[in-house]
Each structure stands twice: as C-alpha cells, then as structure tokens.
Amino acid sequence: MSKPLLQKNTRFLLTWLPVVLLACSVLFFVMLQMQAHHMQEKQLLLKQTNVWNAFIAESGNMVRDIRGEYDIAEQVKTPAFELDEPRDTAVYYPLTREILPFKALTGRLAWHNRPYLVTTYVSSKEITHLIIKVYIAEACILLLLLVAIIILNRKSSAFLWKPFFSTMQKINGYDITRSHALVLPEQTGTDEFDKLNGEINYLVTNVNAAYNNQKQFVENASHEMQTPLAIIRSKLELLINQPGINEHVAVLLADITDANNRLSQMNRTLLLLAKIENNQFPEKEPTNIAQILRQTIDVFSTHYENFPEIATSIEDKVILNVNLSLMEILVSNLVKNAIEHNNAEAKMKIVLSSSGLLIANTGNPLQVNPEALFGRFTKGYYKTKTTGLGLALVKQICNLYGFRVSYTYSVGWHVLEVIFS
Q1: Confidence (pLDDT) at 357
Q2: Strand order in the sheet with 98-111
Q3: What is the per-residue pLDDT across 299-320, written as a single tens digit (0 to 9) for each?
C-alpha cells in the first residue's frame, strides 16, 4: 500500500534514528565509565603520593588512619590482595550506621628501612552518582535531538517539496476536455522540479494536440459517414418503390436497408461514446428521472406491437443533477434492452427510487460471459441484430456521473440495476 513520501521519510527516521542514538548512548556510557575509573585511579595514586609525602614530612607523627581517606600501617605480612592495583571495598561508618562503597589502592613504601602499606580511598558512590547524572543528561539531550531532527526534517521536507505539491495540485485540477491550458513554472528553485515541470509541459502540449486531432477526426469521420449512408438509404427506398421487383430482390433490398440502418445507428452511437469519453456534455441541470422513465415507457409501448406485460414502481420526483440528453439515452437503452431481449413469457419489472433504477425482464440465459456484457460490440445472444453498443453506452454514462451499474440473472429474470449513490 502506497504512502506519502513525507510519511515514509518520517517513519524511516523514527525507525533507524533511535537505533543509532541508542547505540551512541551505550557507547557514551561505556566510555564514561572507563574515563571515571581512570580518573579514580589517578586520584588514588595522587592521594597516596600526597599522604606519603605528608607522613615523611611529619616524621611519622601524623594521624595514620582517617576513615574513608587513607590509612598507613607497618607491613607485618603480605596482604591477600594485589598491591598497586585499584580494588573495590566497603567502609563502615558507625555514626550513620552506613556501609559505603569505595575504591582503594594499596602500595608498599619504605621509610628508615621499614616497610609500610599506604592505602588511599575514593568514594565509588559519588562517582556512580556522577555517571548516572551525566548519562541522564546525555539521554535527555539525545531525546531532544531526536525530536528536533524529526521536526526540522518535516519542516524542511514540506518546504523542499512545496513545488512538487503545487505541480500535483495543478495537474489534478487540469481537464483536457475543458480546453484550458496547463502551464507549469519551469523555474522552481530546484533543478529536479524544473526538469519535471518542463517534461510535464511538453507532455501536456502533445496530449492536447493528439486529443484535438482525435476529436476533430471522430467528428469529421462521423459526419462524412452519415452522408453516404443517407444516400444509400434514399437509393434503396427508390429501388424498393420501383415496379416489377420480385420477392427475392425485395428481400435482398430489405436486408440491405436493415444493415444500412444498423450501420447508421452504430456510427451515431460510436460518435456519442467518443463525445461522452471526451466530456463534451458538461451541461448539468436538475432532471426528473421519473418523468423521463414514464415518457420512455409510453413511447415504446406504442412503438412495439408485442410490448411486454409490465409492472412498475416509480417514485415521483427523483431529481438528479445530470445532462438531460444523456439520462434520456441511458433510460431509453435500458428499457429498449429489456424489451428486445425478452422471451415468449414477455414480462418486465421497473423500479425507480431515489437510490437507483432497476429494470428486469424475462429471458433465456446469456450466451456470453456476463462480465463482458458492458463491453463494446458484446451481445447477449450471438444471432441478435443489435449493434452491441447499448449497454456500453449505459456503462459510459454511469462512469461519467459516478453511478454503479450491475447485471444479474436469476430464475429466468435478467436484472440490470443502476445505483445513483
């Protein structure tokens, strides 16, 4: 599923930037601990040197034990711990009844040929507190940095992509059938968008030229075809009215006339389809569908000798904002389709409501795939003399106004339904 580029970019940052910052935070913590331990060792060694110098300066007459600071003792035996290596220890304070952690360093020094063990202490608790406070401060800084990066990224992305969104807005509002020009600025301040706008301008110019050429060709071709078809029709009428024509010739002339009429109808329908596709019916007005439906039924009931038995349920004043001519064509094609593809049972049902139009007729099962019924030149029965464009025209009009059209067959009934909303 496609998502906006800005959203994908933000999600990418939210996925990987915290991982990078977390790794950096762990590395910072490790380095902070190493530096703190190194500082403790230096402090212990410096304190040991200062205490021993003071001890010598006082000729051994100074306090030899200050809890948590240092102690000096004559070496009697070798200690269990390693000399000159920092170690963890704990010191008990009787007044506060606390046992506090310390880092201790013990070294062997000699004065007047007598060995002494000098031990100095540095509080581990304060170092730990320092590490925690520095680490929390660092974590807060990284969190603020993460938020700042995301906000700045969104702001900068919105600014950088502004020419692109402006281009997309103009393209979305462009309609080739309304014959208005689409001119995009070729200087946006970004090379990539300049090239994009230039290519789109070039493409739109070519598309407009091709569309106008095709539109003119369809109109001219349709007009030119109508003239010879009308001539053929008039000549056939003259031939049919000639005296001395036998029955065989009359049948042939009737077949030619029928084929000519179907060709003329097909030409008009194809032209109408092309005009609908080119959106050459922009005019809309509030149209009463119930009135159109009743008028269509009345016209066909007088035109067809074997008009089916019809049951209607027509809601008054079903008003749609559409082109009147196109709705007359849609209703007419649906009713005519139900009449011409009926069987000996000859029944029809017509239901009109504010939500849609349903037209059902009795008939034999289709001989084609129902999914292809709304395609051009698709006929429900192979031997029918229709053009196969009626339902294609209905589908095209429905697409123009956002209607949904469907077909079902059940228990001997063909059902065509147009949903208005």
Answers
A1: 92
A2: 65-66, 70-74, 114-123, 98-111, 87-93
A3: 888 888 888 888 989 888 888 9
Name the token pair of 335. Answer: 């009713």
Distance CA 121, CA 23 (A): 34
Distance CA(32)–CA(132), nearest Å, equals: 10
66, amino acid identity: I
Which position has the token pair 């200050």? Answer: 66
Structure tokens at 399: 């697409």
More confident residue, 371 or 401: 401
| Gap between the Cα atoms of 226 and 269, Å rounded | 12
- Contact between residue 393 and residue 266 where contact means Cβ atoms under 8 Å apart: no
Q: Could you tell me which residue, 99 or 262, shows the higher pLDDT?
A: 99
Q: CA-to-CA distance for 399 and 403, rounded, in angstroms?
A: 6
Which pTM was predicted?
Answer: 0.47
Average pLDDT over residues 29-39: 86
Neighbour-count burial for 5-43, b at 16+ CB within 10 Å, e otherwise: eeeeeeeebeeebeeebeeebeeebeebeeebeeebeeb
Asked if 41 and 197 touch (Cβ cutoff 8 Å), the reply is: no
What is the Cα–Cα distance from 157 to 305, expressed in whole angstroms? 71
Cβ neighbourhood burial of 333 (10 Å; 0-12, 13-18, 19+): buried
C-alpha 24 chain-centroid distance: 35
Tell whether the model's pLDDT for residue 202 goes beyond 60. Answer: yes
